[in-house]
């Protein structure tokens, strides 16, 4: 097992706090620092795991800070931004049209429409609520006035 300095440990804690799997963290540490670590060694830096029973409070606090920051700043993740997603989809549509992959282009265009909010459908939204927002049909009470009821019926039906 490799001996890790604080910079590598912080990198591992940050990766785990941002929901990277131990395997992903192992690969990232290898790429970033050229150090071989095991999944078990990485797991020992994730509070709540059995392997992290001896994890110092310093790393637990750092994990909590990274996790809270990550969860609270969701807009920092590019794919959480609608404009970014549409931009990427636009590039993908252009590439699929250029390569004459029509089924993929159609699928991507449908995804773009979904991103825009149901504009790919021809659904119409109907408002079934009455004026008082109760969905109760409006009933005119003519209080026994047959002439007024008859006149209202004729007006509705278009008769004389």
Account of the 3D structure:
The protein is built from seven helices and no strands. The mean pLDDT is 85. Among the domains are: 6-72, no CATH class; 79-116. The protein is an all-alpha fold. Helix 1 runs antiparallel to helix 2 (22-33) and helix 5 runs antiparallel to helix 6 (102-116). It has helices at 6-17, 22-33, 39-43, 57-72, 82-98, 102-116, 146-157. The radius of gyration is 31 Å and the shape is elongated. Helices cover 56% and strands 0% of the residues.
Summarize the structure.
The protein has 160 residues and is mainly alpha-helical.
Structure keywords:
160 residues; mainly alpha; elongated
Largest sheet: none
- Overall 3D shape: elongated
The overall pLDDT, averaged over residues, is 85
Order of helices and strands: HHHHHHH
Strand content: under 5%
Termini Cα gap: 96 Å
- Unreliable runs: none
Category from helices, strands and their pairing: mainly alpha
C-alpha Rg (nearest Å):
31 Å
DSSP summary: helix tally: 7
How many strands?
Answer: 0
The level of helicity is: 55-70%
Topology (elements, then pairings):
Elements: H1 6-17, H2 22-33, H3 39-43, H4 57-72, H5 82-98, H6 102-116, H7 146-157
Helix pairs in contact: 1-2, 1-4, 5-6
